[in-house]
Amino acid sequence: MINFEWHDVKTPLFVSLWVVLIMFVQIIFHASRENNFSLPDSVLLIITGFCVGTAIDWFLPHDIYMDPDLFFLYLLPPIALEAGYFMPNRAFFRNIGTILTFAVFGTLWNIATIGLVLWLFSPFYDHSVTPIDIMLFSTLISAVDPVAVLSVFTEVKVNE
């Protein structure tokens, strides 16, 4: 009558366990702030994600893989909602010109430099890669997120 299918629930279960682990790490990190240890939350989360990813790769190498449904249904909404919720509105709108300037020119600079470096190293690749593929990859990998930059700046208490 009741049938348990592991493959139906393993992805939401693992994502939920990741979120709970990240919450515990952040709670412990914020509780231990009295020892004057200055580290942004984003660095802590990157280190935690690396450790969790490495542990999952060691113990469950083929059980979890990144597919578009996992990203768009489970990972993207918390990132976007958290960034929008904790955005300092007054400082953001006061500096909108500067933020957009750095976001646009920063993104274009990243696209050009990453594309140029990849093109310069293309003779060392095993497969031939066209310049359009290099620029497409450069465009995907070099997106600059001004919301993330602003949240890191407010976290490390940079002057508005």
UniProtKB/TrEMBL annotation:
<dbReference type="InterPro" id="IPR018422">
    <property type="entry name" value="Cation/H_exchanger_CPA1"/>
</dbReference>
<keyword id="KW-0739">Sodium transport</keyword>
<dbReference type="GO" id="GO:0015386">
    <property type="term" value="F:potassium:proton antiporter activity"/>
</dbReference>
<keyword id="KW-0812">Transmembrane</keyword>
<dbReference type="GO" id="GO:0098719">
    <property type="term" value="P:sodium ion import across plasma membrane"/>
</dbReference>
<keyword id="KW-0472">Membrane</keyword>
<feature type="transmembrane region" description="Helical">
    <location>
        <begin position="134"/>
        <end position="153"/>
    </location>
</feature>
<keyword id="KW-1133">Transmembrane helix</keyword>
<feature type="transmembrane region" description="Helical">
    <location>
        <begin position="71"/>
        <end position="87"/>
    </location>
</feature>
<feature type="domain" description="Cation/H+ exchanger transmembrane">
    <location>
        <begin position="22"/>
        <end position="160"/>
    </location>
</feature>
<keyword id="KW-0813">Transport</keyword>
<feature type="transmembrane region" description="Helical">
    <location>
        <begin position="43"/>
        <end position="59"/>
    </location>
</feature>
<dbReference type="GO" id="GO:0051453">
    <property type="term" value="P:regulation of intracellular pH"/>
</dbReference>
<keyword id="KW-0915">Sodium</keyword>
<keyword id="KW-0406">Ion transport</keyword>
<protein>
    <submittedName>
        <fullName>Cation/H+ exchanger domain-containing protein</fullName>
    </submittedName>
</protein>
<feature type="transmembrane region" description="Helical">
    <location>
        <begin position="12"/>
        <end position="31"/>
    </location>
</feature>
<dbReference type="GO" id="GO:0005886">
    <property type="term" value="C:plasma membrane"/>
</dbReference>
<dbReference type="InterPro" id="IPR006153">
    <property type="entry name" value="Cation/H_exchanger_TM"/>
</dbReference>
<dbReference type="InterPro" id="IPR004709">
    <property type="entry name" value="NaH_exchanger"/>
</dbReference>
<dbReference type="GO" id="GO:0015385">
    <property type="term" value="F:sodium:proton antiporter activity"/>
</dbReference>
<feature type="transmembrane region" description="Helical">
    <location>
        <begin position="99"/>
        <end position="122"/>
    </location>
</feature>
<dbReference type="Pfam" id="PF00999">
    <property type="entry name" value="Na_H_Exchanger"/>
</dbReference>
